[in-house]
Design a protein that fits this description.
Length: 363
């Protein structure tokens, strides 16, 4: 059934024309150093994040590029290590003393979940038992350091740092329910499936009028009340860059696990589809008052993340989204900006939409 869902997407999408390998080769050349460091050029003079390393590992294992996988993993191990934990530091770059190293030793749970899953997939694809052992250690550390029970429900915190706040800030785009369920095979002692189900509780806290997911939300420790934004307004409660990944995460949940909640949510998310059909583009941001911001470059990451859901439930809009993505594609990369994040989100969306991101079923 699950393979059938992926095949169904492939029949809905236009022919891929070999972009999967071409774009991976271009990404490796532009963003990944020979030593395995992934560089985000959008932040001068170039930073590295655990998210960037994890994305590279996930893409490498899916395109079967073991050489790049091993280089990226080795750099991650050698440079993002945190004392007393197997979870990596989230940010590495230029230091005030002129050297280079860990700039911020906090964690980022989205990267940690992807890191664990990538190692788990690699262990089975390439028959490397040590990778599964490491994935198991990371999964357990995620639960111990980045998961909290609040008012009777389990929440994936954006990082260890979020424990210091009440209300607790949450980022919905960090929740990939399909990935979280698969970590249960690595760490059966903890209720990962219950944590995955929290995703759909959080989705009920949406922007009024549009029903779009917010960049950030918060949960009260006393009674579990959810609200838009976080940390006294310093974290945005609008729909924007941080929320883009929600659509890909839910599309993969439906394609991999046929989750009814994912299907209902994506099918009902018509505001962006209608906006695209009427205007030929997508807004970069949308305020709680439903005011769109369209200035600046096309939000290609949003086009990419949304594309599989549009293919499944909003076909006319999917055609327009694909037209925008194809027009932005040149020499293996999308768009003119040096934005590694955008390249990854578009690639993941295009790959899932083309049926090139089949379900991972642990043995």
């Amino acid at each position: 059934m699950l393979a059938g869902a992926c095949a169904a997407l492939a029949t809905l999408a236009p022919a891929a024309h070999g972009w999967e390998r071409e774009s991976w080769a271009a990404y490796v050349e532009k963003y990944i150093q020979k030593d395995g460091r992934v560089i985000d050029f959008a932040v001068a003079p170039g930073i590295t994040t655990s998210e960037g390393q994890a994305y590279a590992l996930l893409r490498a294992v899916w395109v079967d590029d073991r050489n790049v996988f091993e280089r990226v993993l080795a750099w991650t191990d050698g440079n993002l290590e945190r004392e007393g934990s197997v979870l990596p530091a989230w940010k590495w770059g230029a230091l005030e003393d002129g050297g280079w190293g860990v700039v911020d030793a906090n964690t980022a749970s989205d990267a940690d979940v992807i890191l664990a899953l990538s190692l788990f997939v690699a262990s089975q694809k390439w028959n490397v038992p040590d990778y599964e052992g490491r994935a198991r250690e990371i999964a357990k550390a995620i639960w111990e350091e980045e998961v909290d029970e609040i008012a009777g429900r389990w929440y994936l915190l954006p990082g260890r740092w979020a424990r210091d706040y009440d209300p607790v800030p949450l980022n919905l785009s960090y929740y990939s329910p399909a990935f979280l369920r698969r970590l249960a095979s690595l760490d059966p002692e903890h209720p990962w499936k219950a944590l995955a189900s929290t995703t759909y509780t959080l989705l009920d806290t949406a922007l009024p009028v549009t029903g779009l997911p917010p960049d950030w939300m918060s949960v009260s420790r006393s009674d579990g009340t959810l609200s838009l934004g976080g940390i006294d307004g310093s974290l945005s409660g609008q729909f924007g860059h941080d929320a883009y990944r929600v659509y890909w995460n839910l599309a993969i949940d439906y394609v991999w696990d046929r989750t009814d909640e994912a299907k209902r949510y994506l099918a009902a998310q018509s505001w962006l589809a209608r906006y695209l059909e009427l205007n030929g583009t997508l807004p970069r941001e949308v305020s709680p008052a439903a005011i769109p911001r369209i200035s600046g470059p096309e939000p290609l990451a949003l086009f990419g993340s949304l594309y599989p859901a549009l293919l499944l439930f909003h076909r006319a809009a999917a055609t327009q989204a694909r037209t925008q993505l194809d027009a932005a594609y040149k020499d293996g990369l999308w768009g003119a900006r040096a934005d590694y994040y955008e390249q990854n989100i578009v690639w993941f969306g295009m790959a899932l939409g083309a049926g090139k991101f089949p379900p991972f079923e642990p043995r």
